[in-house]
Fold each of these.
Amino acid sequence: MNKNIKIMVNDEKVKYRELVKLFLKMSLPEDSDACRIFNYNLRSKKQEKRAIKHSTYVTARDKNDHLIGLVRIIGDSTYEHYISEVMVIPEFQNQGIGKKLIKSTLNYCKENGFIKIFLTAAKGRESYYSKFGFKVTKYNVMKITSENKEIGLNEK
């Protein structure tokens, strides 16, 4: 890994503008699995700022302190952690930064006495995360997005 890259655990400097820059640098096609997992099309500035306040970030920053990668953790900060985003901008990929981000995230969770750590992997990336101990579960992940206007209406 590049010596000029620093990994910051529980980085409280994360700002909305730099998240937007990071998302744009990821250059994800709108129909990609990653875009569907992250729901980029449903995000707003107001909600993103609120999400920043209620998330824990493990970040990778370059020598100029620019955000080049991150892991976003949500949960109760003790027993259950959900890794909702893992990203490293393309020009810094394949340099071990993602690996360092995941390892630092898992150490953070261990230090906080976790019981479960969840992760949604993009299709085809399951083997990458299995190297860190993640296993595909027998349970299906279910979700509701704000696009669904019939939330709770199908209950009988």
Amino acid sequence: MEKRKNKIAHISGFIHSRFLFRLGIVAFPYRRIVGQKIRAYRKRTGLSQEQLAEKASLSYKYLGEVERGYVNVSLDSLMRIAKALKVRLRDLVRDA
């Protein structure tokens, strides 16, 4: 891995901050895109993370990690989130 001042280049080409890399948190670009879409739909519907997590039967902490792109979200969880937001699954993963 190539080191740059305070950043570390990952094999995926995504640059991680040294702090996040040490914690074992890897936010791949496609995960971030999906998370940003979930956050946008959530805010559009006026739900908090806690409210959406409850509707989707997920932990609010897990939902926050999904929105930040820190976890590899399962298809089951994506379906729960999509149903809770009343959107199609493809709307969440398009352009990811």
